[in-house]
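Fold sample X.
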Amino acid sequence: MESRKSAIVILPLAWIVASCGSGESRWTGTITDSAGVTIVSNTDVGIWAPGDEWTFEEELRFGVLEGAPEYEFGEVSRITVDSKGRIFVLDNQAQHIRVYSPDGAYEQTVGARGQGPGELLYALTLLMGPGDTLLVPDWQNRRFNRYAPDGSRAGSSRIAPEEGWPMAFRATASGVLAEQISFFRAIAEQAGSPDAIVRLATDGTVTDTFITLQLDESRLGDPFRVVYTPELVWDFTDDLQLILAINDEYRIGVYSDGQLNRIIAKPFELRPIGDQDKEEFVSFLVRRWANLGVPASSVAEMRNEIRFADFYPAFSSVVAGPMGTIWVQHVRSASELGEGILRWVVVPEYDGVSDWDVFDSEGRLLGVITMPQLFTPILFRGDKIYGVWRDELDVQYVVRLRIVGDLGIGAT
């Protein structure tokens, strides 16, 4: 792998949070420590006045229970949009990408299941790069597939596990592509290598390192084996500020050019995962696997492999929103979620619930907003949120929401 410039960050950081003040103030203020890092300490009360809270308006919905096959979805896992507002939908079950106009009219299907040129076996996500070039990492085929704006194949490049195991991907509205890579001890030549968040070119090659992470492994688990294990969560704002945290604490770092400049903190209750919660979760998965046709013997084996963390995380995910805002998704217990836990199975990054804390660009809590029930957000673009809504029959619909409210209040 080519040489990259990098910034070294040790996690966990020595985060010292200011004590919450008393009185009528809705916000506790900020302090600056000796290293020049602004620490923002919030209470549970936001600074939005009554009536200022943002809400949502549904702009678009498409999908069918029975009808035109172009609008039937097996398992929508990712959504992205291009510069013209066209909507690209990755169906994980079919392993193809359908393209729709901004008003939801079907245009074409890109890719197909297989190992040939432009085909997919295990597409991880959709990344819209500069010039509306679509980059699709495919783990099972071990390659990045590229597609031109007209949907034609534009080549591919190799995914090399020895150069970093791909853990997560992000793309900004301007087409900046990023990947989180991790090195496992099983890769002998990379033993001891730090994790990193790197910048990708449109062909999937690494061009730079945003940040290098020497992670405290005692705080992290294996998200593929342990349910609700603490994880590294992150996103980029449009001006390339990195939002980064380990979600065993409600403390979120904001970085510019690889340097920590702000910490956002909020009180939270450390909640143990009880036996009832575990049973609710396992029962749901067993039903889900059975509905998907998994043999009973395999279901029993998979059930025995399920492990749980001791406590729920402080939050589920972080997302960069409009006007420099930062959105933090709440977590509820499995028994509280009920069938809503389906969201965890479909899109692991968004495994929480409908409630989100919204912080302004300075890190002050604006308030809590609630998305529609049974809606899973997948892509935030300006004041638009694209995601999947499921009805009572588990039929999937692609939905676009618009954030309604004065986006300038408290968000500058």
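Fold sample Y, listed below.
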Amino acid sequence: MSSEREIKIVVGDDEVSGLLIAPPNARACYVVAHGSAKGMRHHFFKTLADRLAEHEVASLRFQFPYMEYGRDRRDSTQVAQATLRAAVAEARRLVPNLLLIAGGKSFGAQVTAEAQAESPLEGVRGLIFLGFPLHSPKRPSAERAGPLFNVDLPMLFLQGERDKFASPDHLRPLVDQLKPRATLKLFADADHSFHVPAISGRTEDQVMNDLLNTLVAWVEAEIVQ
């Protein structure tokens, strides 16, 4: 298994931590932004990074400043986007020969979409969203869809069918509007964190396998070609 390398990323007057895994035969690197409540060391991101490496896809995950320093409130949009851009720049520096993909989980997915819509992330060839937060829980809508229409890159939405932050009834027609740039994969019985109830007959490991296979196949078809 490829080793995990700890790095530091400078963001203005702050410095945040990052973790890079770069398999020797990788052709692409996924820059992964964490969600609002769980940092880059959460088991979901650790498992994702390790399994991506098995599929010869590199990854660079990183902390937003509020998570790095234990602050109660999430960073402002400006700070969050600046951190993402700094992480992408560090990926370009550390693995200059790899094709770059950006994205992340929930809050990290939203930050990525907004940043790319505002000003393209240098060197990034596509975006992968792990549970895009399309709306607030119990308020199904497409309220956060606006920036996606200004993203001129291939996009992959990996989403649980029971995700309270993205009703399939709103997500499906949105992706249809974004085609051919966008691809949607829904995971039966999975919630926003890709957890599945025992009654479903599926395990979370099976969901992760399905997620990884979908992600890697998309990277090969849309990014590496």
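Sample Y note: The first helix runs from residue 43 to 54.
Also: Strands lie at 4-11, 14-21, 28-33, 58-62, 99-105, 124-130, 155-160, 182-187.
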